[in-house]
Here is the input.
Amino acid sequence: PGNTTVVWTITDGNGNTANCSFDITVNESVGIKNLKKHGISIYPNPTSGVIYIESTKIQIERIKIYDLTGKLLINKSNLKEKVIDLSELSGGMYIINISTEKYNFTTGILKE
Here is the structure.
């Protein structure tokens, strides 16, 4: 966890170079084992459309779902019902990030 700067240097066939840099922030995240430990469950997984997220111990503030390229597909906050409809998405693997006041949980979900 923390911040780092990545610098890319590109050299073409004539010896010309160019640099590009960007900052990356890595937040501490925990996987499926810690989800259960903190009273969070996601089901059904795999799913054919809808997933349900239950939290018995901590309040969920935000749910984000990404494709495997990192593109944000779903971003929900202040959820009264923790039901996420994935029926519009193609079958495949997706990354779900669940944020609470203290933690970020990241795991995979499979859409059939």
Summary: Helices lie at 32-37. The mean pLDDT is 88. Residues 9 and 15 are 12 Å apart (CA to CA).
